[in-house]
Design brief:
160 residues; alpha+beta
C-alpha cells in the first residue's frame, strides 16, 4: 500500500515539474512585443491631403480598409485570406455607397510579391465590379491632376 502512495507522489511531482518546464518554455517562446504604429505613412498622409477637397462634394475618404469589408467570397473554400488585403483609400458618397478605391504605389510595388498582391486585388475588384484607381509615387500627382482623374472616374459611372 505504501508503494502505491509513493508511486502517486512521484507521478505528481514529475507532473508538476513537467508543467513548470512547459510554462517556462511557453514564456520564452511568447516573447512578442506589440507596439503602436502610424495608420498612414508620410507619403500616404500627403496623398490624402491632396484628395481632401473631394470632401466638399460629399465624398468621404476612408484610409486603410481591407477588402473583406465590402466583398463577399461566394465559394466553398473556407480560406478568406485574400480578402484581408488592405486598400489605401476608399471613397464613399454621403450614404457610404462605395464610389472608388484608390491605391498609391511606391517603389515596393515593383517587387514580385507586391505585384502578385496588386494583381490579386485588381482581380477581386474587377470580379466584384468595384472601380480601382492606381496612382504612383514616382509621378508628381499634383492636386489638380489627382482630383480631375478621380472626379472623371466617378462621373463616368454616374455616381456623383
Amino acid at each position: 500500500m505504501i508503494w502505491i502512495w509513493i508511486g502517486i507522489i512521484v507521478i505528481l511531482v514529475l507532473f508538476f515539474i513537467a508543467k513548470k518546464a512547459q510554462d517556462n518554455n511557453s514564456e520564452e517562446i511568447n516573447d512578442t512585443i506589440y507596439t503602436q504604429k502610424k495608420l498612414l505613412t508620410d507619403t500616404e498622409k500627403s496623398f490624402l491631403d491632396t484628395m481632401k477637397p473631394l470632401e466638399d462634394y460629399g465624398i468621404t475618404i476612408v484610409p486603410q480598409v481591407c477588402l473583406a469589408s465590402i466583398v463577399n467570397k461566394n465559394s466553398n473554400s473556407r480560406r478568406q485570406n485574400e480578402l484581408y488585403r488592405i486598400v489605401d483609400f476608399w471613397l464613399f458618397d454621403a450614404d457610404y455607397n462605395l464610389l472608388l478605391l484608390v491605391e498609391l504605389n511606391d517603389a515596393s510595388h515593383k517587387e514580385y510579391s507586391r505585384r502578385k498582391r496588386d494583381n490579386k486585388v485588381s482581380e477581386i475588384c474587377w470580379e466584384a465590379k468595384i472601380d480601382l484607381m492606381t496612382f504612383y509615387t514616382d509621378k508628381p500627382n499634383k492636386q489638380e491632376y489627382v482630383l480631375h482623374r478621380i472626379s472623371e472616374k466617378i462621373r463616368e459611372k454616374n455616381k456623383l
